[in-house]
Specification:
165 residues; Topoisomerase I, Chain A, domain 4; 7 helices; Legumain_prodom_sf; cysteine-type endopeptidase activity; Endopeptidase 1; Legum_prodom
Length: 165
Amino acid sequence: LVPANDNFTFAPDNSLRPPSKAVNQRDADLVHFWDKFRKAPEGSARKAEAQKQLAEAMAHRTHIDNSIKLIGKLLFGIEKGPEVLKGVQPAGEPLVYDWSCLKSLVRTFETHCGSLSQYGMKHMRSIANICNAGVTKEQMTEASAQACTTLPSNSWSSLHRGFSA
């Protein structure tokens, strides 16, 4: 049995696999929208709406992925940023040493960059690593504001459901 901190959780960005019996929970929305799109009659309003939903979900994922990567580079530099974000705590160590820091930095990110959503939870380790590196809320605010100058105007980025942490 491998401890959770030894797991590597980064999956290929925005990968759509053909339907199978098991679907990663983070991909369930995409599979649903893809299925709606595939089954809708050609040229119908239903097909156009399903295509719009699929495109918005994909745009949100790309926005979240790119924002986290850019924040890492802004905070730690072009070379060290990705290394810090993908770091894994040694077995037996907690994901984050200061849980209030994690909650604060998630809220800071979401205030400037939009909701992480279920998909964005995959970046929780990266935000924990940012906390573990000693980044302050003020530094995260500045980096998030620089990385996210605009928010996608779709329901995926909205904070109407509240913060993720």
